Amino acid sequence: MSTAANELEVLAGQEYKYGFVTDIDQDTLPPGLNEDTVRFISAKKNEPAWLLEWRLKAFAQWRKMKEPAWSNVRYPAIDYQAISYYSAPKSENDRPKSLDEVDPELLATYEKLGIPLEERAALAGVAVDAVFDSVSVATTFREQLAAAGIVFMSISEAVQEHPALVRQYLGSVVPPSDNYFTALNSAVFSDGSFVFIPKGTRCPMELSTYFRINAMNTGQFERTLIVAEEGGYVSYLEGCTAPMRDENQLHAAVVELVALDDAQIKYSTVQNWYPGDKDGNGGIYNFVTKRGACRGRNSKISWTQVETGSAITWKYPSCILIGDNAVGEFYSVAVTNNHQQADTGTKMIHIGKNTSSTIVSKGISAGVSNNSYRGLVKIMPGAENARNFSQCDSMLMGDKCGAHTFPYLEVRNKSARVEHEATTSKIGEDQIFYLNQRGIETEDAVSMIVNGFCKEVFRELPMEFAVEAQKLLGVSLEGSVG
Amino acid sequence: MVAVVEDLNARLRGFESLRERAAGEPEWLQRRRRPALERFFALGIPTVKNEEYKYTNLSALPQVEFFDAPPAADTSAAAYRGLGGFTLRFDSGRLAAADGEVPQGVSVRSIAERLRNDPDGLESLLGACAAFEDHALAARNTACFEDGAVIEVAPGAVVEEPIHLVFAAASAVSNARVLIAAGRNSQVRVIESYIGAGKYWTNAVTEVYAGENAVVEHYRAQLESVEAFHTGCFQAVQERASKVSTFSLSFGAAVARNDINTRLNGEGCECALDGLYAVKGGQHVDHHTAIDHVMPHCNSHQLYKGVLDGSATGVFNGKIFVRRNAQKTDAIQNNKNLLLSDKADINTKPQLEIDANDVRCTHGATIGQLDAAALFYMQSRGIDVERARNLLTYAFAADALERIRLEPLRTHFENLLLRTFADKTEDRQGVTEWRP
Is residue B110 part of a domain? Predict the structure, then answer.
């Protein structure tokens, strides 16, 4: 435990560790958004006509929509015309055949980020589909996965190689018109990951993508689509770091999960986009729509997230439990410090019989930040014997931060059992006293209590992520306890 | 079209007469009424697009103005055996009858009479607490009320005998208005009962000022006809170390909406907001509470229980605000619901907004059904299923009734509750009559 406390102390003094910029000649579109931008992106990616049409339709819808204002976050108006919507590494025209052909500077970036590419990837047992800005440049382990019949590639590749699959599932969980940011994403999405787990297949390794925003003023619009067929299983890891910037950068991603009969998808996120400096300058705007559909019987979707970064987080990973006996889970730790704002939570829509969902959300606010939990549990009339348990705990560090909870519970079936609990507290003086009295320093005690507070969520994370998450927690809470 | 124009004219004439009547009132009140009316027109009747009214559809309200006057209410419904104290009856918000003796240390008067004869001292109270900026219905009441009750408790007076205000509906729209001002170190108990028959709309506003160390015990029995609309707004402002408790019983009305707000303005305040709603058929009941912890060292406690049968719908939205300054706040909120039928709906949203760090705030919400094992156990002991069901339902709800400290009132409500769910017909008439 004392290691964690030392780390807390060491990291407290650190500047944002991943704040470096790689200088690579980029094929960047000038700022601005109109139909031509959409056409350009589509043409650049050599997309089929149906996808271009789909994008244009989304764009037309986006133009009619208004930016939502209901969330509990404040930020200056975003000028969507001042953002560049496409940026790809130069090697686009001449794709590298192997890692040796990949721009060494790019590889160095991955080195610095600690991405287990090359041998390290093999050692770590992780296949990486690394998104460098907008275009995937390297994919490993594809052969091994291909042998199992698993498709793991960038979504632009998937559009070329598996158009039928993409066409079937793209936008089927999160329709383009779902909200303002999904419409924008649908119109201009640059790249992302596509995973397809065929019938009866258990993915032999944990799949992982690292995202990284690298080009000045380039919003990143990823699109992730994961489909698990009958009896399939996959655990997907997503983590991200971004270089230090002064301007706010927009990040509007869409993640769609589809689980058919008996399929399981576990989606874990560690998010530490640049949160802005101590005075609230800069930082990423993270406006993400994540949704999973448990379409089949006995299917299960589990979201685990550790949100420590971004100036603003606006994110509600949701589960639509359509199949009978489907299970939805949401485990979240959201940490805000300094001027960060987080409005995050989940939606659990129970449609099938005997569906169950669990929500565990831990919010920690420090500095002058604001942390909100916003969630919906909806039991539809046909959802016999639906079960939900929600727990939302907030911890406040410092007297200038805020913690808010907005849980909505809508129940249309009498056989449902829905429980919601929430507490807000600071670190108990009696707890610290108890630990002090056992010879544990206050710093260690605080670290111990915070880690204990989040334990329920951390234990849901895959091993590698759990370690990273604990470290991140330390960095994010720098100087907030004394 | 002609009918619509005539309707509109009639409606406008209604508001015109307001202006004429207001002419005789003190200038400060006129100054308060005018913006309230303007605010009401600006806001209009809230629609479901308004987040605060997301689940409560009041779109039928504007039509109520043109309803014929409802039949006379059965006043025995609000005659609580053994209650004693002093009773005032208001028909359509206007004072109609008084019964019993005014207890020592308290003045209970009609607002209209008080305004006519000695309006002094009311300016800082009447309409000063019930904010109507964002509350169209409170704005409407402030603009339109003609009469009501003003209860002023002298500093240091401890009034044991309850003061009972009965609001009976006698016209299509009734504006009920209550003002309770408890002086320093005083104690008072007030009961409001709402009764009626047929179709009508009651729009009530209660303002409570609790001075330093004052104790205000408030009960609200909403026993309206099952065809009626009831919208009520309770607003309290508490000074240092005062205690306010309000219990909301909601059995009646087709659509009921209660807004219950308190502001803890001094240190060491306590407030307890409790309630029980038991509805069936197509009834809809909505409770919105908001506790504003402005100052440190205050406690608040909320327990709302709901029983929903038939195709009834229930809404609970509880907000707790803890301001930056309000350290050492202890706020507890609980909302428990029992669904007895497949068609019943419940929407609950416990909401915390906390800006101070040294606080303890918890909220809980549960939605469930009767325990099948308990039902089976009772049946195995020879209790038939209907009876077992009623007993369990009663046990669930009686927990909330424990909060009522006035024995006669509690007994009355317990009886009502038992009969409500024992009576399987959708017709709720007769439920309100009391049998020992």
Answer: yes
Inter-residue contact B99 to B79 (CB < 8 Å)? no
> What distances in angstroms separate CA A186 from CA A35, A95, A171, B183, one per listed residue?
13, 25, 8, 63
Coil, strand, or helix at residue A173?
Answer: coil
Nearest to B410 by CA among B180, B215, B163, B221: B221
* Residue A410 to residue B327, Cβ atoms within 8 A: no
Question: What are the tens digits of pLDDT across the range A299-332?
Answer: 999 999 988 878 899 999 999 999 999 999 999 9
* Chain B residues within an 8 Å CB radius of A419: 364-367
Asked if residue B18 is part of any domain, the answer here is yes
* In contact, B88 and B212? CB cutoff 8 Å: no
What are the Cα distances from residue B122, in Å, to A98, A210, B95, B212, B332? Answer: 85, 67, 18, 18, 34
DSSP codes of every residue in A178-236 = SSHHHHHHHHH--B-EEEEE-TT-B-SSEEEEEEE--STTB-B-BEEEEEE-TT-EEEE
Do B64 and B200 belong together in one domain? yes
Q: Which of A48, A237, A44 shows the shortest CA–CA distance to A158? A: A48
In a domain, B240, yes or no: yes
A270 CA: distance to closest CA in chain B (Å): 26
Per-residue model confidence (pLDDT) at position B245: 96
Domains contained in chain B, number: 2
B232 and B97 share one domain = yes
Query: Least CB-CB distance to A424: which of B51, B344, B361?
Result: B361
The beta-carbon neighbor of B342 closest among A400, A402, A413 is A413
Question: Does any domain span residue B295?
Answer: no
Assign B355 to helix, strand or coil.
Answer: coil
B329-376 tens-digit pLDDT: 999 999 999 998 888 989 999 888 888 888 888 888 899 888 889 999
ipTM: 0.75
| CB contact at 8 A, A296 and A325 | no
Q: Best residue in A377, A411, A419, A430 to probe B by mutation, most B CBs within 10 Å?
A: A411
Q: Which residue among A381, A396, A421 places its CB closest to the CB of B357?
A: A396
Q: Are residues B396 and B251 in the same domain?
A: no
The reply to whether B257 and B379 lie within a common domain is no
pTM (2 d.p.) = 0.81
For B345, which of A402, A412, A422 is closest by C-beta distance? A412
Rounded Cα distance, B105 and B2, in Å: 56
- The vertex-B263 CA angle with B259 and B269, nearest 5°, equals 125
> Chain B closest CA to A289's CA: distance in Å?
22
Q: Which of B233, B265, B297 is the last residue of a domain?
A: B265
From B265, B281, B307, the end of a domain falls on B265
In chain B, what residues touch A394 (CB-CB under 8 Å)?
352, 354
> Which residue among A412, A414, A424 places its CB closest to the CB of B369?
A414
**Of A45 and A48, more confident:** A48
Beta strands in B239-312 (DSSP E): 243-250, 255-264, 270-279, 284-293, 299-308
Residue among A260, A254, A211 at smallest CA distance from A234 = A260
Please tell me which residue of chain A has the smallest CA distance to B321: A404
Contact A417 B368 (CB under 8 A): yes
Q: Which residues of A touch B348 (CB under 8 A)?
A: 408-409, 420
User: Chain B residue with minimal CA distance to A72?
Assistant: B353
Residues 6 or more apart in contact with residue B312 via CB below 8 angstroms: B279, B280, B281, B282, B283, B284, B285, B341, B344, B345
Q: Which domain holds residue B427?
A: 373-436
- At residue B316's C-alpha, the angle toward residues B303 and B331, to 5°, is 40
- A418 to B344: CB separation less than 8 angstroms, yes or no: no
Comparing A118-132, A145-159, A464-478, B242-256, the range with the smallest average pLDDT is A118-132
Chain B residues with CB within 8 Å of chain A CB: 51, 324, 327, 337, 339-369
Q: Are B384 and B92 within 8 A, CB to CB? A: no
